[in-house]
Amino acid sequence: MNPKMKPETTPGQPGYIAHAEHTALELPTPLILRYTPNERSNHWVTAITFVLLALSGLALFHPSMSWLAALFGGGQWTRILHPFAGVVMFVSFAFLVLRFWHHNLLEPGDVQWLKQIDDVLANREEKLPPVGRYNAGQKLLFFTLIICMLGLLLSGFVIWRAYFAFYFPIPLIRAAALLHAICAFVLIMGIIIHIYAGLWIKGSMGAMVRGSVTYGWARKHHPRWFNDVVKKK
Ligand code: HEM
Question: Among 4-8, 66-70, 180-184, whose mean pLDDT is lowest?
Fold first, then answer.
């Protein structure tokens, strides 16, 4: 091991790890903690229920995808399980929103970041306004997800035949079915972009799997957040 990298346990020394929020942790390697275990569990419950919902929803949506129902024990079970899984995803996502909303508020530099989207796509990050904990793209996706989730929840209750649909007139049920499909489409597209971005920016998956990121990752992709964390040290 390089002696210069030898972990220290005192604040202010190399190897001392500041928590992204307000506490400080000591870890054996120079990493920054980006997500706590609770935040990660919350995220992955949301992600797993999302995948189950996308597959079961597509099975219900069109006969060409009805073969997916076999994954859930057949058509009847798919129809029974899908709305309950939807409620689990909504509740889990609501906790995620409560944890992260204050990091996703738009700031003046965000508009400039969006105007320079060509620099973002060409990896010219040094030309962009310094990004905080999340960039403008992540923030816009965050609010798109909230709108889709609310649309899915409300329309989902209206079309939930077993318990609620008989309270509503048929034209409203039809409109709700359309809204449900539109929100699901936007959500699935949004999450495909979200996963692609997570894979594209090397080191981001580690943030959501292990919880930590390297100093280099933080300084390159989120320099303002990095400075905040280092200052707190
Ligand atoms: C299905 C596979 C998914 C993968 C591989 C994935 C991956 C990731 C990664 C790598 C991050 C960390 C990004 C960073 O720290 O900069 C993240 C953050 C996040 N993810 Fe996911 N995710 C998935 C699904 C979802 C779903 C279904 C939702 C909600 C509907 C979601 C909501 C979030 C939120 C809210 C954040 C924090 C970013 C913010 O607040 O703007 N993710 N995800």
Answer: 4-8
Mutate to test the pocket of ligand 1, among 208, 214, 224, 229 (most ligand atoms within 8 A of CB): 208
Report domain extents, the chain.
Answer: 33-219
Residues 164-174 have pLDDT tens digits of 999 999 999 99
Query: For 210-220, how does the pLDDT look when each residue is reduced to its tens digit (9 = 90+)?
Result: 999 999 999 99
Give the pLDDT mean for 84-113.
97
- Any ligand 1 atom below 6 A from CB of 217: no
| 90 residue type, one letter | F
Q: Which CATH superfamily is domain 33-219 in?
A: Transmembrane di-heme cytochromes, Chain C (1.20.950.20)
Write 192-200 long-range contacts (CB < 8 A, 24+): 193/141, 194/141, 197/137, 197/138
Q: Which atom of ligand 1 is closest in space to residue 35's alpha carbon?
A: 15
